[in-house]
Amino acid sequence: MAEGLEELPPKLQAAYQGVDEGQPIGTSAYRDWTPRSGPPWTIGYASSYAGNTWRAEGLSRLTEDLLPVYRQAGLVDEIIVTQSDLNDARQIQQIRQLVDQGVDAIIVCCSNPVALNKAVEYAYSKGVVVFSYSGYLTSDKALNASSNYTLGGYEIAKAMIEEVGGEGNFLLVSGIAGAASSESFDTGAMRALEEFPNAKLVGQVWGNWTDQVAQTEVQKFLATNPARIDGIIAQGSQETGVLKAVLQSGREVMPISLAGSAGAACYLKQNPDWISHAFQIWPPGDEMELGFNSVIRTLQNQGPKLQSILRGVYRLPAAEYVASLGDDCSVDSTAYIQPGIDVWFPDDKAAGYFLRPENPLDWAAKNVN
């Protein structure tokens, strides 16, 4: 067991099973850390990519939902957003610029796990905490918060293979090559495939977590590979694009893993025999709120126990998954089905990851004049 993991309640420890070997889960450097000044704090969001609906939903939750509430509570005065468009060097420069501008904490998402480490060290030297949500950084001065994507990839792939009888040909639709969460998911999916000797991976494409890209890449694969595909294991936020590619190919629609895209979920509502289940692994707004909540708790000296806050994924029966969709739903929808932060990172769960836990807004009511 990793150092510090025994401090977590047993139910939370379970979320670390099969974790990516590169994911740092040791003792946090911020257990007794205090920020260089009190609230209101300025938060930087050094986004690496803005080109898909998942990122747009996360940004919307941050700036339109969270900022007004936390500004009113006197905790946050401003959120400064930068975009690097998948350019590591540019993101490093932007992180350093945010530090020099005087931000108190920086959130990043889905980045290369090692490329930003020197920028993280620079931020730490200036009293600024860098927090990665929906992925991880390997610096021991970074904090991370996300699902256990390796476990998620394993469970999603295993469920898909079992859905079609434990054998057949499968296509893997990955996210962004080199991004920690994408690589972790694929590692888990490969573990599941290895457990089924009659399950064969016949192809892999990268959809960049973007429906349009995934649709194009799957279309090209299906057009040049006439072999039967029995199931498609797709990382989230692109399954609607995968579905559209299959529909346009003229093939019978095979099971496709579902993890939140409302367009593909609508197809399931209209075709209830298509697949028996779905998963929640990275709901975009809830993932952002998990990261933001953890940042605020750290600034409040609540003391994160570990470098990485990991939560498990969960499986839903198809009928429960589509229950929130109306009969007039559209396969073209770009929205997401999300469980809500009260399910994804409720206070009673969050408390287990911190040494001095308290609801961030309750803390503000007692400590902000």
Report Rg: 20 Å
Largest sheet: 6 strands, parallel
Compute the average pLDDT: 95
- Bin the helical content: 25-40%
Spatial ordering of strands, largest sheet: 2-1-3-4-5-10
Secondary-structure element pattern, one letter each: HEHEHEHEEHEHEHEHHEHEEHHHH
Uncertain runs: none
Number of helices: 14
**How many β-strands, per DSSP?**
11
Strand content: 15-25%
Shape verdict: globular
Structural class of the helices, strands and pairings? alpha/beta
- The span between the termini is 43 Å
Pick out its properties.
six-stranded parallel β-sheet; 14 helices; about 375 residues; single chain; about 15% strand; globular; about 40% helix; three-stranded parallel β-sheet
Task: Give a brief description.
The chain is 40% helix and 17% strand.
Please characterize this protein's 3D structure:
The protein is an alpha/beta fold and 369 residues long. Helix content is 40%, strand content 17%. The protein has 14 helices and eleven strands. It has helices at 10-13, 53-72, 88-101, 117-125, 149-163, 180-194, 211-224, 239-249, 262-270, 284-299, 318-321, 341-344, 347-350, 360-367, and strands spanning 41-47, 76-83, 105-109, 129-133, 142-147, 168-174, 199-206, 231-234, 277-280, 308-311, 314-317. The strands form three sheets. It has a six-stranded parallel beta sheet, sandwiched between helices. A three-stranded parallel beta sheet has the order 7-6-8. A two-stranded antiparallel sheet has the order 9-11. Strand 1, helix 2 and strand 2 (76-83) form a beta-alpha-beta unit. Helix 7 runs parallel beside helix 8 (239-249) and helix 8 crosses helix 9 (262-270). The protein is globular, with a radius of gyration of 20 Å. The chain starts with 9 loop residues before the first helix and ends with a helix. The mean pLDDT is 95.
